[in-house]
Predict the 3D structure of the following.
Amino acid sequence: MGTIALVGNPNSGKTTLFNALTGSNQHVGNWPGVTVEKKEGKFKYNGNIYNIVDLPGTYSLGAFSEDEIVARDFILRGNSDVVINVVDATNIERNLYLTTQLLEMGVKVIIALNMIDEAKAKNIQLGIKALSKKLGVPVVPTVASKRKGIDELIKETVGLIDEKMSLKPTISYGDKIDGEIKSIKRFFTDKTLEYPPRWIAIKLIEGDQYVHDLVTEDKDLDSDNEFRDILSRIKENDEDYELEIVNRRYEFVKDVTKASVIRPKEAVKTITDKMDKILIHKYFGLPIFILIMFAMFQLTFVIGEDLLGEMMVTVMDALAYAIEIFLININSPAWIIAFTTEGLIGGIGAIIEFIPLIVVLYMLLGILEDSGYMARAAYIMDNIMRKLGLQGKTFISMIVGFGCNVPGVMATRTLESKKDRMIAILINPFMSCGAKLLIYLVFIAAFFPDSGGLVLFIMYFTGILVALIMGKVFSKTLFKGESADFIMELPPYRKPTLRNVLRNIWDNVSEFLKRAGTIIFAVVAILWVMAVLPVGVEPYGAESVLGKIGLFIAPIFKPAGFGTWQAAVGLFSGIAAKEAVVTTLGMVYAGVGEGTELISAIQNAFTPLTSISFMIMTLLYTPCAATIATIKKETNSVKWAIFAMVYTFAIGWVMAVLIFQIGRLLGFN
Amino acid sequence: MNVSLAQLKSGEKGRVERIHARRCAAKRLYEMGFNIGADFEVVKNDMGPVIVSLFGNNIAVGRCLAQKIIVKQSN
C-alpha cells in the first residue's frame, strides 16, 4: 500500500503518465492547465494496490494561484509516500526549478524524465546517471505517450516507499539568507505546522503570504517578540531575498545540468517552428482561427447530422415502437405506458438522437486540443482580449466552456489575478455548451436544414461576442484594475493520438448519457407528473399544472416572439439542465414524440424569426443548476452565483427581444 | 547594450539582465525560465505577445510585460 503523487510543470506529460500508470482514461490536452483539480487512480504491483494522485501542473510550488496551493498542500501534509516529479526532457533546465523546491520539502522524490524521444529528436544529449547522482534522487527515462519506461518507473517508485529517506543536496542561498534560515528554523519543530522547519524558513524569507499568515495565526509564535523582530527584519528585504533565492536555485540547476545535459549549438528547427510561421502569422493568424472554427461546425453538421443523424432517427423510432409493443404485451398499467412513451421516449429520446453530432463535435475539438493549437488560439486572441480589458488565457476557459460550463468555470483557476478570474467566471455561461447544442439542432432541423453549419457557427460566435462584450463591461465597472500579464507556454504541435481523441469523445458522451439517466430523467418525471395533474385534465394541456406555470411565465417572453406556455416551460426546465429544454419541448409539443413529430410541432409553433430569438435566449439565459453551483463554489459567494443567474437572464431576454423586434421591423417573420 | 525584450526583432538573441515588472509577474517569469542570465532567442515579435525560445521551449510574453524585461542583446 502507499500513495504516490504526480507533480510536474504544465504540459510535461503528467496526465499522460497518470493514464499510462493506471490504465485509466483521464482527459489530456496539449495545452497548459488541463488538470486544475487533483485526480486519483490506482495501480497494482506485485499484488499490492497503490493510490496515485495527479496534481495540477505547476511551474513552482509557491502560493501563486489556486492550483499551486492545491499541489503544495497535498505534498506537504504528508499525504503521499513518494512524489513522482515528471520532468520534460526537452526542457530540463526549467523543469528542475520545480524539483529544487520538492527537494526542500523533505519528501521522497523520483524523477520521471519524460519525452526523451522528443529530446533525442532535438539532439539533446542526456546523462541520466550523472543527473541522478547530482540531484540525489532516482531518475527514470520515460515516454509516457508510448508507455515506455513505465514498468521501470513503477518498480523504482514502489521500492522507494520502503526505503529510508535519502539525503538530498542542500542548496546554499548565500551567507546572508542561510543565516536567516538558521535564525528562523529554530523556532519550529517538525510538529509546529506540519511543515518542515527549513521549508517554512525559506518560504518566509521569500515573502510567501500564505505561510506568513499561517505563522502569524500561531499564538505562541506571534507573542514571541524575538520571532516578530526577525519577521519584520526579513519583510524589509524579502524582495531582494526572493530574487536571490530564485537565482541560487537556477545556479544549482545549472550546476546539475552542466555535465548531464548537452544541447546542440544550433537548436534543431522543428515542424512546430514551421507551422507557427503560418498559424500564428501577424495577419493570417486570426482569419485562420475563425476559419478553423467555422470548418469545425460545418464538418460537425455534415458528418453528424447528414450522414449519421438520419440513421439515428430510424433506430430510435424502431426502438420506441418496440418498447411500446413490449409494454402493451406484458400488460403494463396504462400510466406506465403513458409515462414511458410520452415522458421517456418523447423527452429523453429527443436528445438521444443527437448523439452522433456530439460525438463528431468532440472528436474535432479533441483533435484541436491534442494538436497544441488551443494555446495558439489564446495567443492570437490575447491582442483582442487585451483591448477588452481581459487577457488571452481567459479565452482558454471560454473554449473549455464549449464542452460544458462547469469545467469552463473551473478552468479559470489558472488565472492569477482576481479580476481576470471573476470576469472569466461570470462570462463563461455565454459559451455554448454541448447541451445547448441540442437545442439549436432541433430548431435547425425545423427551419434551417440547409444551412446548419452556418447557424451553429453564428450561435457559437454570438456566445463568444456577448461574453467578450460583457467582459469589457465588467472590466470597466465591477472589476477595475490591471489584467494580469500574459505569460504562456506554446507547447510543440503533436499528432493527435487516437486514444486521446476517443477519450475526449467518451468523456463527453458518457457524461451526457449519465445526465440523461439522472438529472434529465428526474426532470422528465417531474414534468410528466405536472403535465397530467390535476387528475382529469387533458395531459399536456394548458389546464394542467405544467400548463398553468407556463401560462404564468409566458407573458415575459411575448416581446421576444415566443410567448407560448410550452416555450416558457421549456426555458424553465432548462435551468435544471439545458438538455431538458429539448426534452420538455419534446413532451409538451409532441406528447408521444419521435424526432420528426417534435420537429413538425416546432415548425407549427415557431417561425424562422422566433426560432432564432428562442435559440439566442437559450444560448444566453440563466446557466444550468450545475454551473450555478460551480460558480458559487469557485467564487465562494452566494451573491455572485445569484448575480450570474439574474444578469445572464436579463442579457438573454434583451437580446432575444432585440432580435425579434428588429427582425420584425425589417420584414422577417 | 541593454534594451527591453520588446525591442528585439524576430531571430535576435539575448540574455536576461533585469526584470522591472510587478513582483508577482517577475516571479512567474523567473519560474518559467526568465531568470537573470538566461539566454534566449526571439521567435516572433510583430504584434501582440512576444514569443521567446528559452531552453528550446516557446513562451509567449505579453507586450507590456516584455517591455519590462531588460535584456542584453548578444550576437
Summary: The helical segments of chain B are 23-31, 63-66.
